[in-house]
Amino acid sequence: MKSECSSISGLLEKYFDQEVTPEERSLVEGHVPDCSACRMALDSMQNLRMLIKNPVEEAVGKESFPWVWEKIEKGIQRKERLGLWDFLKSWLDVTPLLKRKILIPAVAAAVILILITAPLLFKKTTSYATLSVVEYVESETHNVMIYELENEKVTVIWLFNGPEEEVSTS
Amino acid sequence: MDVNEAQLISRCQQGDQEALKEIFNQYHQKVYRIAYGVVRQREEALDIAQEVFIKLFRSIRQFQGKSRFYTYLYRMTMNTAIDHTRKMKKVPSLSMDAEEGFQLSDDAERRPDRILDHKELEARVKWAMDQLSPDQKAVLIFREVEGLSYQEIAEATGSSIGTVMSRLHYGRKKVQELLKDYLERGR
Question: Considering only CB atoms, which chain A residues are within 8 Å of B22?
Answer without folding.
Answer: none
